[in-house]
Amino acid sequence: MTRPAKRITSEDVARLAGVSRTTVSFVLNNRPGQSIPEETRRRIFDAAKTLQYRPHASARSLAAGRSDIVLLSIPDLPIGSGISRYIEELAAALAENGLTLVTHLEGAHGRPVADVCATVAASAVIGLLPFTREAAAALHSAGAVAVLPPHAGEDLEIMEPVGHAQATHLIDRGHTQLGYALPAHTALKPMGDERLRGANSACAAAGLPAPLALSTSLEIADAAAAVRQWLDQGVTGVCAFNDDTAIAVLAGLREHGLSAPGDLAVVGADDIPTARLASPPLSTVAFDLHQAGARQAAAVVAALAGQDHDLGTTEGSLRVIQRASS
């Protein structure tokens, strides 16, 4: 039976470089306050490269005082292209700061996020939705230095500008009675409510009644029923929670032999790849996901350093993309 290859250790690097393990640790972990000659540093780096040495995670964590793992907790909700793209941008931004992103999908049969945090020794935990105070406390007890957002009720206001931008777009185009298509999935309700709050704010500022908010699934019959109710109430423009919901509204219109924008203008959010392929092409609110990932990563880095952190607002990273549906 073939034996597994021996793991290369810092002792092997030290032997090849002709220095102590302590010196190897100081150099490879970039320990500040050490006067180590540049030639010695070069020998250590060359030895590590020659041996293909990779520091063991637990040893690196011990040297740094924390791990480089950031855990992203994803609730049990549909993972669309917008969320996938955000995860990619966040992972890249964290990597630029020497941090590694690990994702955990919550669910009825999944392990509690605090257990996963303890298992992977995550230094920071990010929630796609805010944690409750109890959940945040459990994560800190599991070893997390930083938990973002801190607890429910904080930082969801970053969703409000989305609804505000949607409603403002329709108001600017002459619509005075709006509807809002909320998601039927219960896990999306907190975000849906905040986007609706933003639409309410835009209508109030324009002296218009609040949008008629209805929940609709991605089933055509469900969307068609919502369309009929909006039209019966004099609604001429609908803001949808996201592009998937907006495309369902477009399908509901076709079920009645109607179309956008003549019978009902529709605007979505997220600018998913299929938005431009919808019939008609869907107007939407787009995010700068690169900026969002960088902002979240900066907040994590600040929190791990014990500094004040601010997730900021999405408002500056939003833009309305007008297409034929509005």
Write the layout of secondary structure elements.
Elements: H1 10-17, H2 21-28, H3 38-51, H4 57-64, E1 69-74, H5 81-95, E2 100-105, H6 113-120, E3 124-127, H7 133-141, E4 146-148, H8 160-172, E5 178-183, H9 189-205, E6 212-216, H10 220-232, E7 237-240, H11 243-255, E8 265-267, E9 284-287, H12 289-304, E10 318-321
Parallel strand pairs: 1-2, 1-3, 3-4, 5-6, 5-7, 7-8
Antiparallel strand pairs: 9-10
Helix pairs in contact: 1-2, 1-3, 5-12, 6-7, 8-9, 10-11
Description:
This protein is α/β, with parallel strands linked by helices and 326 residues long. It has three domains: 10-63, 434 Repressor (Amino-terminal Domain) (Orthogonal Bundle); 69-154, Response regulator (Rossmann fold, 3-Layer(aba) Sandwich); 157-288, Rossmann fold (3-Layer(aba) Sandwich), CATH 3.40.50. 44% of the residues lie in helices and 14% in strands. The chain has twelve helices and ten strands. It has helices at 10-17, 21-28, 38-51, 57-64, 81-95, 113-120, 133-141, 160-172, 189-205, 220-232, 243-255, 289-304, and strands spanning 69-74, 100-105, 124-127, 146-148, 178-183, 212-216, 237-240, 265-267, 284-287, 318-321. Strands 2-1-3-4 form a four-stranded parallel β-sheet, with helices on both faces. α1 packs across α2 (21-28), α5 packs across α12 and α8 (160-172) packs across α9. The radius of gyration is 25 Å and the shape is elongated.
